[in-house]
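Protein modeling request. Please complete all fields; requests missing the sequence field cannot be processed.
Requester role: graduate student
Desired output: 3D structure, token encoding
Chains: 1
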Amino acid sequence: MARYTGPKCRLCRREGVKLFLKGDRCSSPKCAFERRSYAPGMHGRRRSFQRKVSGYGVQLREKQKVRRIYGVLERQFRRYFRSAIGQPGLTGANLLQTLERRLDNVVYRLGFASSRNQARQLVLHGHFQLNGRRASVPSMLVGAGDVVSVRESRRKNGYFTGLQEALKFATTPEWLALDAAEMTGQILSLPSREQIEVPVKEQLIVEFYSR
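Delivered output (211 residues):
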């Protein structure tokens, strides 16, 4: 399964904004973006202040930002976009809604992981079930009424026993409901654009693929 395995802080520096790819570390003084917020590379500092970005470049950077936030490679991202075009409503909002419905993102939003990358690993290792059945594919799309839970056999795992107390204070989006005691989460509804807290301008992505 293809995925990006390079330095994650480098991606934040390239996009010029925190993407919170490393969980709690991104909120600590150890965050590389806090120390070096300019673009990576030997000419990164000069490029960040002197480079003029074209309209195409602005659209490209917005598309890359969303891809990197959700950890999706280009081919799969294009499939999501084509699917969003065929759905009723705004294409950009449909695209973000599809990305939010990914199982790894839902696990992250419920507080079972501190980053989407960690959530992806937890799903791949078979720690979760969807509607009572084992789910190990991070890209699975959930729907309204679905229930995501930690498998009974994995709840005694050291990671989850330590997490259970923290889940009592976790905050989740309005479209999700978390039961910390049972370590389960339910999808109450599909997220609207207002409920998706991702700082992107999705219309730029639509314009990029419409060129």
